[in-house]
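Structural prep section.
Before we set up the soaks we want a predicted structure of the protein with heme C in place, mainly to decide which crystallisation condition to try first. Input record follows.
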Amino acid sequence: MKRFLLLPLLALPSVALAQDAKPADLSKLKAEQLCGQLCSGCHGADLSGGQGGSLIDGEWKHGSSDADLMRSIKEGNPQLGMTPFGTLLDDGQLRMMVIFIREKEKQAKEKGMSFPKPKPGEVTKTQQENYKIEMVVENGLKDPWALAFLPDGRKLVTEKSGRLRLIEADGSLNPEPVKDTPQVVEHGQGGLMEVAVHPDYEKNGWIYLGFADGAKEGKQVKTITAYVRGKIKDGQWVEQQQIFKAEPQYYTDAGVHFGTRLVFDGKGFIYFIVGERGGRMEVQDVANPKGKIYRLRDDGTVPDDNPKFDKAPVPGVWTYGHRNPQGLDIDPRDGSIYNTEHGPRGGDELNWVLPGHNYGWPVITYGMDYDGSPISDKTAQEGMDQPVTYWQPSIATCGLAFYRGDKFPKWKNDLLVGALAQQEIRRLRLVDHKVTEQEVVLKGIGRVRDIKSAKDGNIYVILNGPDRVIRLVPAE
Ligand code: HEC
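Run finished without errors. Recording the tokens verbatim:
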């Protein structure tokens, strides 16, 4: 009883402080500062609790969803000493606070948790399957980005600097890169990125590359993601054909968000990504090449049955409103296409990619800007698709693969999601386009850049820092 009377009294000074601060000042504050000024007084500097409870122990009295937290902060509980912040903070700032709390919550959780951190030769146990990791290439690769299999047992690996490398059938890395591959500009996050082998390679020999195309003139660099196909004969790139190239006015000096992945649907079509290149609102314009997923015939021509838009799109646009997608794969069960994309700070997304749809960036997002300022106060809007799931805080999604093999039967058709910043592979089970299971199956041995489900049933992974290719094989 005494406690109940005391709390509101103790709360008074902080409430007064919060209301003294001018809204004009608050609007300039980033998430950390806002929290320090408005929340830490009661919830503790690290949010682990004071006169207000802990916000990082994973226990929520008034609901645990983002929407619940948002409501708790907005409406408060003045009787129990929680200030209602709805009049002081706008929806964008309230969302920033939710994202910030989620970041702190995750950090606290991970301090006390152990995730599967595999060591070569040792068995790693997960919920459904146990695996070992084997080293495929330990040394000799610099910033490897993507991996593709040739039917004769060789593998192709891109290096960001522009080199296309071959891993021979015996597992050795060929010291000579493929000669005469296209001119690539290494620019910020971009360079040579994707490599993909045509499903009818044995008949046609086509290999596809996705890369930062452009020119360096002195200090001026302007690039955008482009795609070509070609063949490798006697260690040399030959017969190159252009698949996708943006108009020159869209080349930009921004070194970020190249996106980039390419997949085949096995019916003669390719799907591929061009990232938003820092263009933000440009991605909402279908006539602008940035922030789009495309569908073309495998020779680069535009299919007749691509979606129609209000205005003429860049030829091949399939979906728009994407930020920086670096994961793309097709569900072997029903042909549904999924992508993962980097959000800003918070709000990495898994999307079900449907023709003509708008995925909302930057009008709607579950993230905030890197400096802790809001990007949008909206997470949903009519005419814009919601993600299948999103990650808060960001894991930095990169590489996405449905597991198609038989060596891990309990993972069959599960989705493997790679993450750079969190150095993770997550396994997601999708039922009717919804996530019914999610588990970290590997963590902490490098930034996960690419994941591929191989014909032999093993799972190949490209790691950055250290730069390696490993594979997951069954424990038995
Ligand atoms: C004056 C003290 C005070 C301040 C300032 C304050 N809180 Fe609280 N907060 C509390 C108390 C006390 C509770 C518990 C209320 C209850 O039990 O209903 C609470 C509850 C909450 C809850 C709900 C927790 C749950 O378990 O569901 C959230 C979320 C929250 N606060 C966030 C914030 C944020 C974000 C800020 C800063 C913008 C903030 N609080 C500032 C005292 C405060």
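Observations: Residues 208 and 229 are 4 Å apart (CA to CA).
Flagged for discussion at group meeting.
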